Structures are given as structure tokens and as C-alpha cells.
Amino acid sequence: MKKLFTVFIILLSICILGACSDEDRSFSIDEVTIDAQIEKDGSIHVRELFTYTFNGSYEGMTRSIESDAKNFKAYLADEQDPTASTENLESLKVEEEDDTYQIYSDSQDETKRVLYSYDVEGSVKKYTDVADLTYAFFDDSNETDLHDVEIAIHPPAETNADDMHFFLHEDETGELTALDNSIQYRNSLLEAGSTSMIRFVFPSEQLTEMELTRDKTMEADILSAEQELAERAENLGAGMDRITPVIWVLLGAMIIAAIFIWLTHPNRYRGHKDQDALLRLVEDTDPLFVKYLHGNSHLPDESFIAALFSLKQRGIVNLKEVPSAIAENTNTYRFTWVHEKADIDIADQFLRQWLFTEHDEDGDYFLLESLIDHEDESDEVKKEKAEEFKVNFDQWSGMVKSRDDYQHLRNPFKPFSLFSIPLLVSSFGLFYYFTTIDTIGQTEQWVLPVIAGVITVVSLLFNRNKWVLSGYYVIMLLMTAVGFTFTPAVIMTLIFYGLSIMLLLLIPAFYWNKEIRRLKYAIRQAYDTFKDKSYPVGANPTKIERRLEYAIVLDVGEKYGEQCGQKKQLSALETYHPLLHNPVYATTSFSSSSLALYTATVQSNSTNTTTSATGGGGAGAF
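Above: the chain's sequence. Below: its structure in C-alpha cell form.
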């Protein structure tokens, strides 16, 4: 024992030391010097010199490039000049995966310079008068702070300063200036997650080996767009301040209206609340109808169990616990069709044809285990059975929902539309306002309102449909978060959208008929009572088993099964009351959380690799 204890202590110490060493391990990028030469064919030859300082042991570095990069190579460098010859430099092993390059070079507590060389294609646009490059060497996907960043971009040929135009976007800390026949970006600290987008415009006549992207003069349009962006940036704060009080008013009005509608909604049950009467009401209702109302007009995959209990209570089906035909020393449940002349509808007829496929001297039957996923079956068999189950279940559930008793159970709640429509209009109004003041491009200025306008119109047409409303606000949240500058006003608008979708989901768009409203309240009371283990058990075994069936239908069977299991005399009732022989086992067998049903779950994995003409990416180490 002492030896085992000693070994354990040693292993534990090694793990702790290893964890500590991983925590102490760190690296920094102290300097980044990039030289980008635009070629006559529109491609860009890029050379990047990174200076790393490693604290601890590392296998190598990473560089992600989200544009169409080619010919990526890496070298150990011994000079500060990224344009120096690579002839005598040590080449490093490089592996690429999903636009990320892994450069292998073991490092241990040292400073190291690494030179990257690659070509970028498809990022320069050529027009009749000018060429346009909009590119970011690093964007918000970069997870590492970059110190002393210097980027030089050269046009293909000598260019007068008056013929070059350059602009810096999404970067408040960097500086972009003109040098001799180039532009230079400098930043003492480009923080992780920051984007630095550079736009460089120069004469298109220098791209002698590149075809026109578009046969149109664009210089005036580009300069006009950039001037507008500059003006928007200058006035952005004032524009956001103007809309902030409006958002506060909208938030307050929305919350007050939601509270009022919720308190006055017809679905709030205001009738008699005698618990015994309510529980008896549930026990006198068809189990499948209880399942349907408990699921808010939805029939989940395990609903056929409620249908079988319904047939059992009507004396059409017999239930019995029998030995399993698949696994030894285990039991399952057999349902046998015993009433051949029963008055049943097309849904029950279909259920019989679907499930009761076996036959013996006692009649048509099926075993519960025939619908359960078994581990020893192949994936192909499981998939085939899953698809068969799904097809049959969808047909059967459609027949059930077409029953007269399932029709006209609820009516539209008009105040819901009076709540959702103003919210939709206000949401679009806020979004449109941001497109008029934020620093977005001319294309986005008309594309974003068009998209928002179309989905707003669709949502107005389906103002009661919560799926449509949910999709609308998810799209608006994403477009607002991604498209606009993160200011307090935009953050408040995101909160407004988020609260809108939450309140619209909470407030019912319909109200139930008076009888159904009472029944749903009774079902909720029964569910809570089953869950709290306070539902009456009683002494009548027939009534106990019936109650156990409703507990199973409401997905709280195991709770009531534990209550029933405390009655020792129930085990003697196996012949006529099979669920009471072992209530806990029975409720577990029928529980939706335990039933691994053959449901169609077809997953498809697809990988799409796309590149960005505007660049982006980051740097790191591993």
C-alpha cells in the first residue's frame, strides 16, 4: 500500500507540475513588418517578418490568411528586412488546414524571427480609370496582440502622390500615411480581435496584365463614398445620442404593454380550483387528448404510448408483461388487440396496421421492445427503421389531429397582433435609422434596408406565427450586431430585439375555449401533483393503474411509480394489472427519457472552404 501511495503521489505531482508549466507557458509577437508588392497581373506578393518571444516550449507558429493565398513558405530569418533574399535562409516545414498554416520550428525560452512569403490573388479590382484594393492583413479573428506593426503596400509602378488615394477603416489606433511610391500603416499595438482594413486606390493603367473587373470609371464614386464615410464617422456619436431616448421609450412601452397583456390574457384560468374535481377531470379524459393538450397541440414521438393506453382503457387492447424476445433475463410489455368489433376511427385502424404486425392464438400483438433502439444493430438497420417509424408516425399523428375533438379548440388573441405589429415596425425603424448614420459602405446602405424590409413585410403578414417572428428577430439581431458600430445605442437595440422575441414567445397568440382552458389547468395541476409525489394513490388497483398511465403520459411516471411501489400488496396483481407488478420498472420502461425510439435522425456533415478577397486572419503559436 505504501508503494502504491508513493506512485500515486508521484503521478499527481507530475500532473500538477505539467499543469503549472502549461499555465506559465506564454509567447508574444513583438514586431511585425509586412511588405506587399502589387504585381501587374493584380496579384500581391507578400513578405511578412514576425518577431516572436517564447516563454516555455513551443512546437511552432500559426498564420491564418482568409484570402486566396498561394505559395506560402516560411523561413528562419536573421535580419529585420522582410525584403531580404531567402536564398541562404533555413526553410521551415509548413502544413495547411482551413486557411491556417502551421509552421514547425521548436522554440524554448528564446526570441525568434520568422519570414513568411506568399501570394494573394483576387483582391485587387480593376476599373477603367483606377484599381481598388481593400484588404486587411489582420481582422477580428486574430487572437494575439501584435506589437510594432508596420505594413508597406507598393503599387506596380512609380506613381505620383496625387494619383494615389488611401483610407483606413475599422481602426482607431493605427496610422496610414504616404511614402515614396507606397503607403505605410503603423501601429504600436494592434490588439487581438481588432480589424485594420486598408483601402488603396491607384491608376489602373499599371495593371497591364490584368483584365478589367468592370468597364466603368470609379474614382469619383470611390472618393465620394469615402468622403461620406468620413462624415458619418464624424457625426456618428451625435446620431447615436439622438436615438437613445427613443429606444428607452420603446423599451418601457414594450414592457408595460407585455405585463398588461399577460395579466389580462384569457388563458389565465379564473374558474373553480377544487383539486379533487380537477384531478377527476383529467382521469375522465382520453390519455392521447391529455398528451396533445399537455404538449400544446403537439404530439411527440412517444405519443403512440398514450394512444395505446387509450385503447386499453376502452377495452380494445390488452396489456401484459412478458419475457423479452431479444435480451435474456429481461421483460418487456405486450399489447394485444382483443376487441375485433370495436368502433374505431381511421387513426386507430392505422395504428393497428402499423404496430400490431405479429399474430398468435391470442390475436394481433406487438412488443414494446420492437420500437426500441438496440445497440447490437447496425447503423444501416437503425436508419431504415427510423425512417419507417417517422413515416408511419407522421401519417398517424396527422389522422389524430384531424379528429373532430381536436378541432376548433382555440381562437386568435387579437391583442397579440396589436402588440407584435408595432414591435415589428419599431424594430425596422431602428434598424433603418442605423443604416443612415453608421459607417457602412454604399452597397450596405441599400442592401441591409432591403433585406430588413422584406423580412419585416413577411413578418407583418404572419404576425401571429411565432416561428416567423423568432426567425425575424434572430436575423435582425445578427445583422445589427455584425453590421453596425458597437455603441450604447446599438447595444440597447440588441436588448430591445432580445426582449421582443422573449415576450412574443411568452405571450400566447391564441386563447383556448372555456372547457379546454379548464382541462389544461387541470392537466397542469395533475402534472405538478405527480411531480411533487402528492397525487392520491388509493386502494382500487384499477384506478391506481389508470392513474399510473396518466402519470406516464405526462412524463412524470417515475415519480408516481415510486409512490405506488411503496404499496407491497400491488406485486400480487400482475395478471390483471401488469403495470402495478413493479410500478417503478413499468414507468421507467414507458418513460420518454428511457425509450430510445427509432426516430429519424439523419445528420449530414459538409465542409465548405471559402476565401475572402478582403483578407483577414491572425497569428499565433502552438
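The CA atoms of residues 140 and 193 lie 4 Å apart.
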